[in-house]
Amino acid sequence: MMVFxxxxxxxxxxxxxxxxxxDMLGVDYVIPDISYLEGKEHKIRAILITHGHLDHIGxxxxxxxxxxxxxxxxxxxxxxxxxxxxxxxNLTKQAQMHVVDPDKTLRFGSFSVDWFRVNHxxxxxxxxxxxxxxxxxxxxxxxxxxxxPVYQEPTDFAKIGSFANQNISALFxxxxxxxxxxxxxxxxxxxxNLEKVIAEAPGRIIIAxxxxxxGRLQFLINAASRHGRKVYVSGRSMSDNISIxxxxxxxxxxxxxxxxxxxxxNRIKDADTxxxxxxxxxxxxxxxxxxxxxxxPQIRIxxxxxxxxxxxxxxxxxxxxxxxxxxxxxxxxxxxxxxxMDVHTSGHAQREDLxxxxxxxxxxxxxxxxxxxxxxxxxxxxGRAMGLSQENAIVIENGDxxxxxxxQARATKExxxxxxxxxxxxxxxxxxxxxxxxxxxxxxxxxxxxxLTVDGKxxxxxxxxxxxxxxxxxxxxxxxxxxxxxxxxxxxxxAALERFKGWKRGDVKAYVRTALDRFxxxxxxxxxxxxxVIIEV
Length: 537
Ligand SMILES: [Zn+2]
Hints:
The chain has 14 helices and 24 strands. It has helices at residues 54-57, 60-63, 76-88, 157-162, 187-200, 214-226, 236-247, 287-292, 318-330, 351-361, 373-385, 433-445, 479-499, 505-524, and strands spanning 2-6, 9-13, 29-31, 44-48, 72-74, 97-99, 106-108, 111-118, 125-132, 135-139, 168-174, 205-209, 230-234, 258-260, 273-277, 306-310, 334-336, 365-369, 400-405, 408-415, 421-423, 447-454, 466-470, 529-536. The chain starts with a strand and ends with a strand. Zinc ion binds next to loops.
């Protein structure tokens, strides 16, 4: 999420979420910290959406009410996906959603906005030209250049070229592939390779792909039909995205070709089947992972099956992906993935394409965005190699403030709050550092709960403390330890009773916790999460 502000006007570009990092146990998503915008809601003129990936739209339902429902603008597909998210949260009625015509200029207070078509791994992706009295900026969104895209229009090079004489102060450009040499492989080449595999496969074909890669899904559906195969769709996000894309006519299918996996007849010939599934990232609960484990309700993998992972693992997912591949080959399937043949291409521009973007826009400064900081630094280096000065290739981080004055961009020392706001289930912002730390302790050392039943008036224990443990010790086999823990808990409680004359629940619990913490550490060298629970009767 990026905020642009000029005097009394604010426009926001994208409101995405991040998938949790490995140590954020149980966290579903991380959403942007919008504390800077508190009290400034009345200035927010628009939210501009570059494309429909969740890391660009995912946090909208969480944050839109807090931002007091500013209008949202984006392409047809992006807005279709935004609407789907808002529907899930029952917010569609209050939201103001606008599908933009990329050829029309929009005005928001002192800002004017023009859009330009780019290619990416989801159709209908747009970049933004944002003009203000202080300077003009170009924001690429996520992009790549593809001269032969599949079921997408190519990037609007003519429009991007026209920016060169519009005094662009800063180019905010996608850095995800700044370390990859050359040009990004065209989707057409991927299509040719996929077609060959589909033509030659003797039995069933199972293809795992990103459910938002709608152009490729359309290609696969058509290829299936060309080779006399029916398509069966497995996995919720895959069937959801296909039906949204069909509604908005981004996927057009001959009747009867695409079906749910649940409708797959038992006696269909293997050579007549193509199954589209989720799970290309090795996600543990996905359809493909379950096929590998022999745990899928409809599909049993067998020799003769051809499985294509039309994807590449997102950094961090490699192990999970290869473990799924291992399971599938063990069951006798032939598995084709990028190391075997190019059956996937990235949605992000590689080095030569990033250079071309800089060359077309001719900005005064480059601000690498998207991707890890090492990728953004690599992108800044590309800018410098192309003649930008040291201070005009500007790497900023979350929470940093960039100022453009008289057309000159520079990073300031100002910082705005940019904490990780963690979402678990339906809660918002209630998962803080303490909860994550507790989960870490529990995951490594288990949990030990002590029930202290005390007299409501005298606060004296009415019976021996009881203990419940999970992942700490196996109580049936540790009777001695259980007894000793109970006795320590009683002693700890009685000592606390002596010590804190006023009997404050929090103090007493903390005292018991510390006493038991020392004991378990000394006795068995473990530090479970200790939870004293006091029940007054
Ligand atoms: Zn994207």
